[in-house]
Amino acid sequence: MKPILRVPLRYGAIAGVLGAVLLIGLFYTGKHPFLIEIYLDFRIFIFGVFIFFALKELRDYVYGGILYFWQGIIASFLFTIVFAVVASGLIGIFGSIQPSFVSEFISQSMQKLQGVRGELIDRVGKDVYESNLRALPATNAWDLAIHYYIQSFVIGTFVGILLSVILRRQPKA
User: Which pLDDT score, from 0 to 100, does residue 81 have?
Assistant: First the structure.
């Protein structure tokens, strides 16, 4: 297997397991991890560390000190795919095994939505607010896993572009 595939796959699998374990650990602390704002999400740190070391390994040990931006983007994207699949799969399985994971998310989300009702209605409209409130009880573990999967791509894209720019090194002319 080519290093541009092998390295991000390895780092993504390790980070995916770590991400799922951290999310499950956060769940047992009392505040549901899906209700933490995305800018405070621990994935930003995990992606930063793991993508950094994956790109650094590719640059320093595989490509002899050279890393093009496109190589960094491809490796970061592969890392993100593997992380998202592994972590989301483990979260879906955990949510299916532990029903309180989903039920606590629903109850804490309803409390949060009702706490900011007036402000939220002003922002999104009453119809959208009420339809979201009605749809919330139908949420299942795999809905949460898909949500986590999508959010991982948002975070991974941002961090991957940033680190690909920082770590790129081209041959001197």
Answer: 97
